[in-house]
Known about the structure:
This protein is an all-alpha fold.
Amino acid sequence: MINRRVVVIMPDTLLKAVDKIAYQQYSSRSAFVREALKRLLEERLLEERREQMAKGYKRMGKINRELAEEGLAGDIGTMEEYLESLAGGGE
């Protein structure tokens, strides 16, 4: 993996907050920024996947309902036959 130097401009207050955490919990400012960016990218990717899944569920909703209703219709017919056999003495 090739590492590249990147210049980032930020307000002094943000830099101080970054440095406070970076030097307490990470080996360097760069390590902290790498981890922060990695986490942000992972969160964005996860959010995109959730949005795609939600869209898919919405698109498939009608089809899923139709399939469920078809299954219920078949189950109702089977149940009616079963109840009739019980009422007829199991014949």
